Amino acid sequence: MTLLDRFALWFGRMTAWCFAAIILVMVYEVTARYGFNAPTTWAHEASVLLASFGFVFGGAFCMAEGTHMRISYLVDKHAGLARISDALSLTAGAVYLAGLCYAAWRMAEKALWRFSISGAWDPERSGSTLNSPLPAYLKALLFVGCLLFLSLVLQRMILRRKP
């Protein structure tokens, strides 16, 4: 297990706590809304951010842990197909994630590097009552998550070639 694998596993376990935090935020929101008739303006966006954080880094966690779903009927029946199957899946994953990284970078760049006419930094905003810059941050987060996942896939490709 490499340092990158250990980092992805540790980071994945830490981001899993985001889902526990969502439960706390939602309990607070429901209590405030229905118990005190004082709904929050931030609970929905906070839960979206926390869930996004967990989902974006979940792929890298599964890659590092080796728990991605597979249909292994043919590989189980024919041991020689395992190397071919691994090579094809890693290549397809690398191509897909490279494209996703590029697209995520372009989206994040457009969302984050926006400036108003006065020259003030004005990232893309949600348009909700809170009007937070959450969409811009989520796009940047998607890029970082894809980059980590792609790094793990490329690492697997390189380590498989070594004798």
TrEMBL record:
<keyword id="KW-0997">Cell inner membrane</keyword>
<keyword id="KW-0813">Transport</keyword>
<comment type="function">
    <text>Part of the tripartite ATP-independent periplasmic (TRAP) transport system.</text>
</comment>
<feature type="transmembrane region" description="Helical">
    <location>
        <begin position="7"/>
        <end position="28"/>
    </location>
</feature>
<dbReference type="GO" id="GO:0022857">
    <property type="term" value="F:transmembrane transporter activity"/>
</dbReference>
<dbReference type="InterPro" id="IPR055348">
    <property type="entry name" value="DctQ"/>
</dbReference>
<comment type="similarity">
    <text>Belongs to the TRAP transporter small permease family.</text>
</comment>
<keyword id="KW-1133">Transmembrane helix</keyword>
<dbReference type="GO" id="GO:0015740">
    <property type="term" value="P:C4-dicarboxylate transport"/>
</dbReference>
<dbReference type="GO" id="GO:0005886">
    <property type="term" value="C:plasma membrane"/>
</dbReference>
<dbReference type="Pfam" id="PF04290">
    <property type="entry name" value="DctQ"/>
</dbReference>
<feature type="transmembrane region" description="Helical">
    <location>
        <begin position="136"/>
        <end position="154"/>
    </location>
</feature>
<keyword id="KW-0472">Membrane</keyword>
<keyword id="KW-1003">Cell membrane</keyword>
<dbReference type="InterPro" id="IPR007387">
    <property type="entry name" value="TRAP_DctQ"/>
</dbReference>
<keyword id="KW-0812">Transmembrane</keyword>
<feature type="transmembrane region" description="Helical">
    <location>
        <begin position="48"/>
        <end position="66"/>
    </location>
</feature>
<feature type="transmembrane region" description="Helical">
    <location>
        <begin position="87"/>
        <end position="105"/>
    </location>
</feature>
<protein>
    <recommendedName>
        <fullName>TRAP transporter small permease protein</fullName>
    </recommendedName>
</protein>
<comment type="subunit">
    <text>The complex comprises the extracytoplasmic solute receptor protein and the two transmembrane proteins.</text>
</comment>
<feature type="domain" description="Tripartite ATP-independent periplasmic transporters DctQ component">
    <location>
        <begin position="22"/>
        <end position="156"/>
    </location>
</feature>
